[in-house]
Amino acid sequence: MIKPDEVQALVRRLQAGGVTMFEYQAPQGLLRLHITQPGPLPTNAAPPAQASTDVAVQPATASSVLRSPGMGRLLLRHPLAGDAMVRVGDWLSKGHIVAVLQAGELLAPVEADRDGKVARLLAAEGELVGYGAPVLEWA
Description:
Layout: H1 4-16, E1 21-26, E2 29-34, E3 65-67, E4 72-75, E5 91-92, E6 97-103, E7 106-111, E8 116-121, E9 128-129, E10 134-138
């Protein structure tokens, strides 16, 4: 089974990469993480001695493309609502939910990473997307 210090190292890597959801299933059980705090863990949580440091982490910068924070089926319309969450030409504020990722019964939001106008949608309704897949382009 995974050790607590390994979980801490994993959370640091996921946070550094902007990942908000992670699931790992093994014969011993299921580990599901939903990371709500952006950025690294507090400094009083020292990294474990055996943690690998072979990944170079670059600070997040604004991009002209919004990328998927996880993997699943991209839904541009909420399953219980009829209207699209976002359309080309819409002005969005940072944090606005533009789509949801569906993985089984789980629905996870895809939020705008900045304020801006939607230039075009890069993924189609129901498309299976992976982590970092382009979702929309900002004008």
